[in-house]
Amino acid sequence: MADTKQKVAFIGTGIMGAPIAGHILDAGYDVTVYNRTKSKADDLVARGAHWAETPAAAAADADIVFTMVGFPTDVEEIYLSGEGLLASAKSGAYLIDLTTSAPELARDIAEAAETMDKHAFDCPVTGGEAGAIAGTLTLIVGATEHDIASVRAVLETFSSKIFCFGGPGKGQAAKLANQVSLAASMVGMADALSFAQQSDLDLALVREMILGGTGKSGAMEQLAPKSLDGDWKPGFMVKHFLKDLGLALQVAEEREIALPGTDTAFTLYDMLEAIGGGDLGTQAITLLYQEEAEAVAAGLDWSLYTSAHEDEDECGCGHHHDHDHECTCGHDHEHGDHECCGGHDHGEHECGCGHHHKE
Fold it and tell me: 172 with 100: CB under 8 angstroms?
């Protein structure tokens, strides 16, 4: 039974954070919220949550503090700064980061917390906005079952599955493995729909057929319908997925692991962000395969993808290279004048399909 006497602070009430905090509130917990944009917490406050002016104020009297912010730099600042959570949370508090972040940072935070008589663990989630709203997220925990025993009840208010991977940072590493799998699925979905479209097939029927066989994926099941309907509203933003893929590629480079599927997905999403798609949902990858008019209608601008972007020392695979090269994603980063994935010429840019195009 939930210990509703525990006080909970929730920091970061965005697309995912707000519904998660709502489930905790609905379960009867005393919840205090903070978000950089206060209006995004207004609904929670109207439903009974308390508002705090700073993360430190939110955490000061909380038994459990949740954070769900955008990037590892945000996590580092909110935990490790002079007025961060490690300094402001009370002794014995549990600090639970739901952000997808860097494994090494999660380990640093957990180790520092223990020296201050506090308990911190990484707990990234998967399931998207729909799972957050339904309260059916999968939690990926960098701790043991014993470690989370006293907070399991509150975790269960917004989840359907909890996987414990045993130690600090391992939740983040497991979540990145999930994102690596998703990356290939997203590219596969986009490729399949483009191939079907160019073959003059009924796209809805092709999708139904694929879902009945071994080609099915979560991307094809959940995100393809949005793409077919021209719905680019984010359940998960391109810029955040790109961040996750970059983290995975960084770990892979450190461990000398080749992730060609992730390399390709990173290149595509990097291109999509460069032309103005960073705040769209990840299903917007399919816009890279469409005529320019469709991209423009979605708010994208191919002219933003300049030669300066192509010539950066860090190529689309997410790795830094000192010399001219063809990176592992299969793209030549030395020349332009390519076509996009769907075979449409949008000016001087490189495609993301991994093929060299000749006139």
Answer: yes
Active-site option among 118, 175, 233, 358: 175
pLDDT category of residue 5 using cuts at 50, 70 and 90: confident
Copy the structure tokens of residue 209: 């057929």
* Strand runs labelled E in 4-148: 7-11, 30-34, 50-51, 64-67, 94-97, 119-122, 125-126, 137-141
Query: Considering the chain, what is the average pLDDT of its residues?
Result: 88
Give the span between the Cα atoms of 22 and 15, in whole angstroms: 12
pLDDT tens-digit map of 69-114: 999 999 999 999 999 999 999 999 999 999 999 999 999 999 999 9
Closest CA to 91 of 72, 66, 63: 63
pLDDT one-digit tens code per residue, 144-163: 999 999 999 999 999 999 99
CA distance 100 to 240: 9
What are the percentages of helix, strand and coil residues in the chain, rounded to 5?
Answer: 50, 15, 40
Whether 175 is catalytic is yes
Could you give the CA distance from residue 39 to residue 45 in angstroms, rounded to a whole number? 10
Pairing label, strands 64-67, 159-164: unpaired
* Alpha-carbon distances, residue 345 vs 10, 225, 292, 298, 305 (angstroms): 46, 26, 8, 18, 13
Asked if 305 and 349 count as a contact pair (C-beta separation under 8 A), the reply is yes
Amino acid at 232: W
Tokens 């009945």 belong to 212
CB contact at 8 A, 193 and 101: no
Q: What is the pTM of this model?
A: 0.84
In this predicted model, what pLDDT tens digit does every residue of 184-213 receive, in sequence order?
999 999 999 999 999 999 999 999 999 999
pLDDT digits (tens, 9 = 90+) for 316-350: 334 443 333 333 333 333 333 445 565 545 444 44
In angstroms and rounded to an integer, the radius of gyration of the C-alpha atoms of the chain is: 22
The residue with tokens 């359907």 is: 160
CA pair distance 236, 263, nearest whole angstrom: 19
